[in-house]
Amino acid sequence: MARTATKTASILSELYEETFSSDSFEPFRITWADLRGIAGVARLNDRYLNEIDQALNDTGHTLIAFDNFLVVARENDMTHFRLVPPRVVEEFLYDEEEEDDDFDDDDEDDLEDPNEGMNYDDDEDIELGEEAVKQQKSA
What we know:
The chain is mainly alpha-helical. It has helices at residues 5-17, 32-39, 46-58, 86-91, 96-102, 107-110, 122-138, and strands at 28-30, 61-65, 70-74.
């Protein structure tokens, strides 16, 4: 039987404190296969991963998923990462007027409706479709 997400998170928290690669109490990577093995599941779905992360959050840890591995870390492990300064953020702040200026009404004319100018009667389409099926069966 598979482990609960809470039990799996508890094991990951213990691994955080474990000494390996000459470090303990440091962020660590774990492969997807190793986490599946610890959890006792064949597949790690989003719901299960979220439950592990929520349980880790209770102990001050977090689970970060990447394509080829996962990372278990604490918030204070991340404080040495560079922080985007306000002057840089300001350059990218959303400006509603800017978005409106980017919209060009002429772009709507560029989208062509393939049925424009065609006047089909729905009943006629059904009859034509049925006739085509009959012809295809007889061929």
